[in-house]
Amino acid sequence: MRLPQPSASDLLILLEPLPINTLAALPPRCPIPFVRSVSRVFAILGILVVFGAVLGGYLMEKGNLMVLVQPAELLIIGGAALGTLLIANPIHILKGIGSGIRGVFGSSPFGKSRYLETLRMMFGLLTKARREGNLAIEQDIETPQESKLFAEFPAFLKDHHTCDFVCDTMRMMITGGVEAFDIDQMMELDMEVQHHDASQPISALTTVADALPGLGIVAAVLGVVITMGALGGPPAEIGHKVAAALVGTFLGILLCYGLIGPIGAKMSKVADEERCFTHMLRVLMLAAIKGSAPQIAIEIGRRAIPLNVRPSFAEVEQVCRGSAPAAPAEGGEGKAA
Fold first, then answer.
1. Is residue 197 part of a domain?
2. Looking at the domain assignment, is residue 232 inside a domain?
3. What percent of the chain has pLDDT over 70?
4. Residue by residue, what is the 3-state secondary structure of the chain?
5. Number of separate domains in the chain
6. For 232-241, how does the pLDDT look when each residue is reduced to its tens digit (9 = 90+)?
7. Is 257 a domain residue?
8. Which pTM was predicted?
9. Is residue 3 predicted with pLDDT exceeding 60?
């Protein structure tokens, strides 16, 4: 369904004169609704469903679980996969894979509350620059960790990529002499570099996932070699060795398509969320650089937010004006438009 568009009267309310006092540029902090992400729950639930369905079907056919317990096969596949990962990637990509996997089992850092906080912060920053002049925010931009304006937004200060992106862009704005088009090109280049760096761990993990079926075949071939050396033994022993060899192929395919591949796909979606967040900041700051009023720049930024986490016009107005959100009426929540 379409989101409700702000009326002309709503925009006129936003354009009302604001206090010239710098401290009033950023309204008192108001409670922002926080909704805990269910990404962690779905990730764990998905893994349990995959392995539960596979093992459940195996047990329904009277399979023996102990046959699947083959530490040697798992060592061959897992060790070879880890070795290829270490050979092909430098340390910073390996660290990115680790942090990316932790992000898969954590909540998304780019929910509606994060967008509302960021819009409120940019509203205060742009209002201060418009009322007191661009040089008034120079100290905030040069030393954001010591800025009183940014002190209310610890998530922004901890996110070094976003902090550098905003401060470097605003520095170009207050310096002067740089066209809006050139600043936009700088932001686009910065976004491309950030997205490329975020994509490298994903590509490395996806490559390992694609290699797992082949490594499973390697384990199976080694199992066949062992089986061929025991052809003179009792049939039960030969059957056990053949089963162990086939488990290698089974593990390689299951880990590829049931675990490592989906984790890589989820990491890719997290990287896309970060790119959408940076794109919102880009269009917001570009509007301000072109001379739009802070209220209009904030609205332009709001329109760039993905629909599933986009706050309404009223929510943004409440946050920027410092008024607490109205409590939902009894008898049910309002339907999202």
1. yes
2. yes
3. 83
4. CCCCCCCHHHHHHHCCCCCCCHHHHCCCCCCCCCCCCCHHHHHHHHHHHHHHHHHHHHHHCCCCHHHHCCHHHHHHHHHHHHHHHHHHCCHHHHHHHHHHHHHHCCCCCCCHHHHHHHHHHHHHHHHHHHHHCHHHHHHHHHCHHHCCCHHHCHHHHHCHHHHHHHHHHHHHHHHCCCCHHHHHHHHHHHHHHHHHHHHHHHHHHHHHHHHHHHHHHHHHHHHHHHHHCCCCCCHHHHHHHHHHHHHHHHHHHHHHHHHHHHHHHHHHHHHHHHHHHHHHHHHHHHHHHCCCCHHHHHHHHHHCCCHHHCCCHHHHHHHHHCCCCCCCCCCCCCCCC
5. 1
6. 778 888 888 8
7. yes
8. 0.78
9. no
pLDDT, position 22: 41
Q: Does 10 map to a domain? A: no
Confidence of residue 313 (pLDDT cuts 50, 70, 90): very high
Which structural domain, as residue segments, surrounds residue 242?
68-321
Residue 219 has pLDDT above 50, yes or no: yes
